[in-house]
Amino acid sequence: DAGVTQSPTHLIKTRGQQVTLRCSPISGHKSVSWYQQVLGQGPQFIFQYYEKEERGRGNFPDRFSARQFPNYSSELNVNALLLGDSALYLCASSFSRDRGTYEQYFGPGTRLTVT
Amino acid sequence: KQEVTQIPAALSVPEGENLVLNCSFTDSAIYNLQWFRQDPGKGLTSLLLIQSSQREQTSGRLNASLDKSSGRSTLYIAASQPGDSATYLCAVGGGNQFYFGTGTSLTVIP
Hints:
The complex is a heterodimer of chains A (115) and B (110).
Chain A: E1 5-7, E2 10-13, E3 19-24, E4 31-37, E5 44-50, E6 53-57, E7 64-68, E8 74-78, E9 87-94, E10 105-106, E11 110-114
Parallel strand pairs in A: 2-11
Antiparallel strand pairs in A: 1-3, 3-8, 4-5, 4-9, 5-6, 7-8, 9-10, 9-11
Chain B: E1 4-7, E2 10-14, E3 19-25, E4 32-38, E5 44-51, E6 56-59, E7 62-67, E8 72-77, E9 86-94, E10 97-100, E11 104-109
Parallel strand pairs in B: 2-11
Antiparallel strand pairs in B: 1-3, 3-8, 4-5, 4-9, 6-7, 7-8, 9-10, 9-11
């Protein structure tokens, strides 16, 4: 079975631009979460989506938005990019939102560089 | 808010040595705890998941323990190999998200 896939692998944008990152979960997984990982730090939670609805949001500004499609794939959008948005963006999928049992599987990430 | 700390931040050991990585968390009301491995510039690879009702999990040379009452987890790696060199992250499951530590960077010297 294919794992979690993310596209693109790398991306270079200019301050003020907008970016869209894409994620396809493992087949059968209905929950997708997005994390931001700045160099040298652990991942920070941005969003969780389950069955196309937002189920959780981390402490990120409204410039960050996401959505989940009927096939459970997801997009993360970031508007008005800042230099500080440069990071590795990770997508994780899990089978359910049952908090007691779900295991998260991560994709390879999208490296975003803002110049 | 859940705070997760990993000690040490970096560790260098000779090949063949057994080692322990530590993870502590401030809120014991967790659902589970997951250990990950991350190679430079790459995504996270799941190593072990411990449910809140469990005390430990084992996979090959890896053993993870969980003590919720003291807010601690350890990852034990037996007979370390150069291929084990990576950053190890622990993540505590609570609410709708996992809370991550900053990781332990492990180097195994041949």
